[in-house]
């Protein structure tokens, strides 16, 4: 009698295993992060497997809906591989085009989230994240985030992550790349929300014969004390190449001012750098090295014939 | 037969179903008693109830989930983990530290699976065809699953009725079926459900 009972148990356990093997779950995915910029062109909704379930692959056939607009996206395929604590990113094409944005797992239409009136995002039918209508940040930096399974949403710097684990933070605050004062050809945009990583671009068409470029940077205390005075550098980002843009991990201002200025200058051959640009209509900006050069990045002189960069 | 040792029979039983994947063989003979799905014929069972929608069957997910239990911070969930209980707020039950995502699957997880042909009591055998409580044996059957507590049985039957409504709804819309089992709203039909029934939005 005892052994026969064991046999039944073994059979049942085996059959349960065989029956469930063909199906993967999806219950433990939560809506984790919701983001929109002001015009709705850059948005994402991030799901998160929040309970350490490693077989929650079956998200296909489930939908993501925002409410009350009822905009709905049907997830067409499941995910492959272990799912424990993974993320799944649904985002607009505008988001995907941003520098620093992880590749979305799925593209949703622009304006999917109606930021003024929507107050819920659902992973149907298993999870709903709610907020007060009108409180979804639209400054292009902050998003609404869960901090634990079932937690209330709080505003934090956006941190989109896709299923592969690629993560980042986007700056959708201004449409990207404002020109820097006095140097319309020099553009910079944040790759990270805190500005420690910048995409720096310059007018390469104006360059002639350069072999490299440097970023020269200084802080508030290094600005000239009087008009036409010399610029004192905090340092240089050497050998950034000849292709624009360049992704620069910018340092903090060493004087504690929080202000960091920078220029891109060409490096001509033989340790000479090109122009720093003009501080007024006629006069060159000057560093503290020979002939107004920087003296960093093995530069020993300046040759003003190459005026690209700045 | 007499020369076959008992362990040989067990090994044979264990090995023979596994050399063909579940997707490639008919499992109809066992799906009802195991809450299984027959990939060949495209239907499954949960609590003895036939489910024709693969999506609904997957959503019902009548097996325990191995999860990181430290991620459950809700006090009721924590208590449920320790006591093989059910958190009403999050609709998650725990059996032997495995998670079940509905009242029905939680009750089935605690129940004893019975092959109906082996049930001696005629009333219980009859009950196993759908559901029913046997006063004589003091056991309830939800399909081929035996539940000994009347209160648990009543909960399971109520939950089974919701799933029956969902299975019916899934013939026209899986998303309505999903809304029915979670008291949610179908994003496509825009129907909100409570206790299996449509309610005004």
Keywords for this structure?
A: mainly beta; six-stranded mixed β-sheet; 2 helices; elongated; disordered N terminus; B: about 200 residues; alpha+beta; four-stranded antiparallel β-sheet; three-stranded antiparallel β-sheet; 8 helices; about 40% helix; globular
General description of the model:
- The complex is a heterodimer of chains A (310) and B (201).
- By secondary structure, chain A is mostly beta strands.
- Chain A folds into two domains: 17-170, no CATH class; 186-302, no CATH class.
- Chain A has helices spanning 2-20, 93-96; strands at 29-36, 43-49, 63-67, 72-74, 87-91, 106-107, 120-124, 127-130, 142-145, 154-157, 179-180, 183-190, 197-201, 212-219, 235-237, 246-249, 260-268, 272-273, 301-302.
- In chain A, the strands form four sheets. A six-stranded mixed β-sheet of chain A has the order 6-5-2-1-9-10. Chain A has a five-stranded mixed β-sheet with strand order 15-14-17-18-19, with no helix packed on it. Chain A has a four-stranded antiparallel β-sheet with strand order 4-3-7-8, with no helix packed on it.
- In chain A, a hairpin with a 6-residue loop joins strand 1 (29-36) and strand 2.
- Chain B is of the alpha+beta class and 201 residues long.
- Chain B has one domain.
- Chain B contains eight helices and twelve strands.
- Chain B has helices at residues 6-15, 28-34, 54-60, 75-83, 103-110, 122-127, 150-169, 174-182; strands at 37-38, 43-46, 49-51, 86-87, 92-95, 98-100, 112-113, 131-134, 139-142, 145-147, 192-194, 197-199.
- In chain B, strand 2 and strand 3 (49-51) form a beta hairpin.
- In chain B, helix 7 (150-169) packs antiparallel against helix 8.
- The radius of gyration of chain B is 18 Å and the shape is globular.
- The termini of chain B are far apart.
- The model of chain B is unreliable at 1-19 (pLDDT under 50).
- At the A-B interface, helix 1 and strand 3 of A face helix 1, helix 2, helix 3 and helix 8 of B.
């Amino acid at each position: 009698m005892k052994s026969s009972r064991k046999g039944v148990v073994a059979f049942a356990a085996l059959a349960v295993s065989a029956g469930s093997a063909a199906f993967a779950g999806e219950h433990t995915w939560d809506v984790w992060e919701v983001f929109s910029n002001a015009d709705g062109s850059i948005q994402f909704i991030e799901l998160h497997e929040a309970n350490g379930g490693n077989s929650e692959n079956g998200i296909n056939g489930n939908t993501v809906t925002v409410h009350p607009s009822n905009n709905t996206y049907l997830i067409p395929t499941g995910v492959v591989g272990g799912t424990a604590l993974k993320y799944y990113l649904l985002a607009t094409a505008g988001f995907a085009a941003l520098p620093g944005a992880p590749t979305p797992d799925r593209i949703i239409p622009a304006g999917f989230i109606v930021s003024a009136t929507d107050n819920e995002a659902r992973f149907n039918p298993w999870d709903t994240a709610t907020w007060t209508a009108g409180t979804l940040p639209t400054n292009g930096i902050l998003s609404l985030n869960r901090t634990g399974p079932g937690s209330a949403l709080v505003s934090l710097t956006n941190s989109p992550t896709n299923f592969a684990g690629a993560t980042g933070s986007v700056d959708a605050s201004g449409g990207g790349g404002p020109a820097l004062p006095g140097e319309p050809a020099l553009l910079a945009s944040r790759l990270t929300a805190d500005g420690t990583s910048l995409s720096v671009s310059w007018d390469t068409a104006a360059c002639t014969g350069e072999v490299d470029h440097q970023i020269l940077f200084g802080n508030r205390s290094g600005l000239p004390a009087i008009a036409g005075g010399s610029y004192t550098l905090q340092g240089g980002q050497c050998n950034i190449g000849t292709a624009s843009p360049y992704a620069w991990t910018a340092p903090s201002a060493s004087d504690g001012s929080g202000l960091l200025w920078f220029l891109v200058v060409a490096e001509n051959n033989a340790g000479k750098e090109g122009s720093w640009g003009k501080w007024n209509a006629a006069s060159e900006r000057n560093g503290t090295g020979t002939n107004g050069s920087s003296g960093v990045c093995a530069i020993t002189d300046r040759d003003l014939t190459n005026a690209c960069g700045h | 037969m007499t020369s076959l040792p008992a362990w040989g029979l067990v090994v044979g039983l264990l090995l023979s179903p596994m050399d063909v994947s579940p997707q490639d063989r008919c499992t109809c003979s066992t799906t009802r008693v195991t809450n299984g799905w027959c990939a060949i014929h495209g239907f499954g069972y949960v609590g003895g109830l036939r489910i024709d929608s693969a999506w609904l069957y997957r959503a019902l997910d009548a097996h325990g989930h191995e999860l990181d239990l430290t991620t459950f911070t809700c006090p009721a969930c924590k208590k449920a983990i320790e006591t093989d209980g059910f958190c009403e707020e999050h609709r998650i039950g725990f059996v032997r530290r495995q998670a079940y995502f509905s009242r029905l699957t939680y009750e089935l997880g605690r129940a004893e699976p019975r092959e109906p042909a082996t049930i001696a009591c005629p009333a219980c055998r009859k009950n196993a065809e759908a559901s029913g409580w046997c006063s004589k044996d003091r056991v309830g059957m939800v399909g081929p699953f035996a539940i000994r507590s009347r209160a648990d049985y009543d909960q399971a039957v109520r939950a089974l009725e919701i799933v029956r409504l969902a299975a019916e709804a899934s013939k026209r819309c899986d998303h309505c079926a999903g809304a029915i089992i979670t008291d949610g709203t179908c994003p496509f039909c825009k129907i909100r459900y409570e206790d299996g029934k449509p309610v005004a939005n």
